[in-house]
Amino acid sequence: MENVIKPQNQGTKRLFKNPVLEKLTRTHISVPLVIFFVYATALLYWSITHTSLSPVTTVVMFLLGMFSWTLVEYIVHRYLFHMAAHTEKRTKLQYTLHGVHHEFPKDKERLAMPPIVSITVATLLLLLFRLILGDLAFSFLPGFLVGYAAYLSVHYMIHSFQPPKNILKILWVNHSVHHYKNGEEVFGVSSPLWDYVFGTMKKHQ
User: Fold this and answer.
1) 168 within a domain of the structure (yes/no)
2) Is 183 domain-assigned?
3) Residue 141 pLDDT > 90
4) Which of 23, 119, 128, 138 is the one with CA 20 to 30 A from 12?
5) What was the pLDDT predicted at 4?
6) How far is CA 113 from the centre of its chain?
7) 35 occurs within a structural domain
């Protein structure tokens, strides 16, 4: 996404004329967080009661799931949310997915996916990881979802509260660079790791 959208600190924007579709683009941050934590807990319970995975394997796969999320977060943000909009349809899709957030970064109702999308994505991931990982999916996916929930929490706090006076302040600083200085740098929100790996950390740091 080119750096052409001027951020507005306040306000919101209607995306769809249809009130139902418009409502589906908005959600309170607590809703997807509850969904992902409940989903993750249910999967871990299933793993403990219906698989033969050892406690060590379960913990390792859970942590691997959390770590894997940070890479997916970076890739999705950089290549999907900031896709090159060569056509009118791609421009509209990009704006609906993410451009509106850059224009109205303080709109708290558009800082997370709506519930129906959250449930759908979690279920599709379960089917995909089950196909690839077998029973390991029941400990890997909970970590992945908790990582996702952590990202949502961090993203919400960055846009809603003043930065803390501790090491976490760097997350606020990095995301502010992405929103207000250069939208083609600093794609990691919950972690700056992959920006350093792929060379998209802000050049003036």
Assistant:
1) no
2) no
3) yes
4) 119
5) 47
6) 9
7) yes
Tell me 109's DSSP state.
G
pLDDT digits (tens, 9 = 90+) for 88-119: 888 888 888 888 888 888 888 888 878 888 89
Total of domains in the chain: 1
For residue 98, what are the domain limits?
A: 19-155
Taking alpha carbons only, the member of 110, 150, 152, 143 closest to residue 125 is: 143
Closest listed residue to residue 69, CA positions, set 9, 23, 27, 121: 121
Contact 24, 30 (CB under 8 A): no
Q: How far apart are CA 13 and CA 108, in angstroms?
A: 12
d(CA 5, CA 142): 36
When the pLDDT of each residue in the chain is averaged and rounded to a whole number, the result is: 89
Closest C-alpha among 29, 199, 169 to residue 109: 29
The whole-model pTM stands at 0.90
* pLDDT at 204 > cutoff 70: no
User: Mind listing the pLDDT tens digit for each residue in 23-32?
Assistant: 878 889 999 9
